[in-house]
Design brief:
The protein is an alpha+beta fold. Helices cover about 35% and strands about 20% of the residues. The protein folds into 2 domains: about 10-155, Fructose-1,6-Bisphosphatase, subunit A, domain 1 (Fructose-1,6-Bisphosphatase, Chain A, domain 1), CATH 3.30.540.10; about 170-300, D-Maltodextrin-Binding Protein, domain 2 (3-Layer(aba) Sandwich), CATH 3.40.190. It has helices at about 10-35, 45-70, 80, 105-110, 185-195, 220-225, 240-250, 290-300; strands spanning about 75, 95-100, 115-120, 125-130, 135-140, 145-150, 155, 170-175, 210-215, 230-235, 255-260, 275-280. The chain has a 7-stranded mixed beta sheet, sandwiched between helices. About 40% of the residues are buried. Keywords: Hydrolase, Magnesium, Metal-binding.
Length: about 300
């Protein structure tokens, strides 16, 4: 079967599927809180078991729907990988899915989580649909056709005029603590966060950015950058299912997506674990938009400590 490079049918399918999955996620959350006063077992294991059950249920629905509608496409999913399936990215169209991104938020009833459906072709993100069912936020994009909020508002929210960003010190930066809380990782992150937030008169290498934000969902962080609500987002330790959909949306909103050491995302970088995205930025008198983005990234990479995963 010939590949449709426009992926319009995949986009429409993914939007419908994300809404179906979102209904399942909301239902599971409601049941958790309805049973909150039932003293059966309030241990952490019980809470994690609920999240796992919902993750698996959503991914099963998504995976089966994709196999039925697009049997020629490959599939990579977080839960499938956790169950032992090989996650191999090739040049073929590949759906890459996180059934619930922001599982800690989901478990605690914080409404900042989503389903993320991405499509990669020739190892590059070409389509993204990210849906937060609690706040009714649906982000979508396919390559060459722009990024949209709720299918009606073009991204970034300031479209067609991206906002300026003079320096990293003027930025609101998304960072995350992640699941690896080992001493070495915590020290690396602590050093980075201190330099990004610290007063340069007292912190060596301090940037004193406007603020740091840790919201708990990689996919929604990408959407916030795409919308222009956050200036950049950096995390080490993400997986392809965390970022593919968001990367497609961000690129279509004029953002630039980077991998390890601040190089532009390409090739097999989706299967790596180092990700950085910078929003669309207005050009200056002496720089193009992309040159400003690259300059901001260079400044950022000089302030953070990279490490292996």
């Amino acid at each position: 079967m010939a590949i449709d490079d426009g992926f319009e049918s995949e986009l429409n399918f993914s939007i419908d599927l994300a809404r179906r999955a979102g209904a399942i996620i909301k239902e599971a959350s409601a049941k958790r809180w309805q049973n909150a006063n039932v003293q059966i077992d309030s241990s952490k294991k019980n809470r994690v078991d609920l999240v796992t059950e919902t993750d698996q249920r959503v991914e099963k629905v998504v995976k089966e729907a994709i196999a039925q509608t697009f049997p020629q496409h490959k599939f990579i999913g977080e839960e499938s990988f956790a169950a032992g399936e090989k996650a191999e990215l090739t040049d073929e169209p590949t759906f890459i899915v996180d059934p619930i991104d922001g599982t800690t938020n989901f478990a605690h009833g914080f409404p900042w989580c989503c389903i993320s459906i991405g499509l990669a072709y020739k190892k590059q993100p070409v389509l993204g649909v990210i849906y937060n069912p609690f706040l009714e936020l649906l982000y979508s994009a396919r390559k060459g056709h722009g990024a949209w909020l709720n299918e009606s508002t073009r991204l970034p929210l300031s479209h067609p005029n991206p906002l300026p960003l003079a320096s990293l010190g003027d930025a609101v930066i998304c960072v995350e603590w992640g699941s690896d809380r080992s001493k070495a990782v915590m020290e690396a992150k602590g050093e980075s966060f201190t330099r990004l937030a610290g007063d340069p008169t007292q912190v060596k290498g301090g940037i004193m950015a406007h603020s740091l934000r840790s919201l708990g969902s990689a996919a929604l962080n990408y959407c916030a950058v795409a919308a222009g609500q956050m200036d950049l987002y950096h995390e080490i330790g993400c997986w392809a299912w965390d970022v593919t959909g968001g990367a497609a949306i961000a690129r279509e909103a004029g953002a630039k997506v980077y991998a390890r050491n601040g190089k532009e995302l390409q090739g097999d970088d989706l299967m790596g674990h180092h990700f950085l995205v910078v929003r669309a930025i207005a050009p200056t008198d002496s720089e193009t938009s992309e040159q400003v983005q690259d300059r901001i990234v260079k400044e950022f990479m000089g302030a953070v400590t990279e490490y292996d995963v």
